[in-house]
User: Fold this.
Amino acid sequence: MAVYLMKSYPVSTTRACKVIDLPKSMFYFQSSKDDQPVIDKLNELVSMLVNHKAGQDKLYERIRSEGIPWNYKRVRRVYLAMGLKHRQRTKRRLPKREKQPLTVPIGRNMSWSMDFCFPSHGVVRMLERAIREYGIPMKIRVDNGPEFTCSVFVNWCAQRDILIQYIQPRRPMQNAYIERFKRTFRQDVLDAYIFEDLYQFREITEEWLEDYNHHRPHESLNNLPPLKYQST
Assistant:
């Protein structure tokens, strides 16, 4: 404020400080603290934890665990001054995907299409259950979600010689079978009922799947239900 007054009006430093009730000694005060080591350490930790949550408290605990005696207030002051509280997450770069034509599999377990809304460990558990019932697929067509690109899912498929067929980013139509299935399930089940509990949801879903697989005609399968088409 004192600097603003001196730049905007023909007043001295003494007059500007007096107007805003600022001691002149404070105007000329310069901190002797060197925060560069704190800045360097915070930058180092943030770069290490770019894909993880690295809030102020977590960073401070890491600093203390290394035996560095900086107090909490100092780390917080530098943390805020560096703007780390408002940092933006960098976009994850995806490898270039080749366009894969969507074809109707001519045999059982030649290709599965998947889409999930939970972590990779949950995906693997569900796949293990599906394999016990239906056998191992030759390939699985998926999008580029983190649950499918992480090492847990990739390694799991590699151990079972399952080919992962990634669609191109922002091209959900390349996984049209599962997208159509999701729309139909949402329309017939999720949007059609008000569920009282999880048990009721599972019961209705099982009934719907029974009809979907055994009775409902599918245009892409010559108007046959999936299981009847499979036996032809």
Summary: The first strand starts at residue 112 and ends at 113.
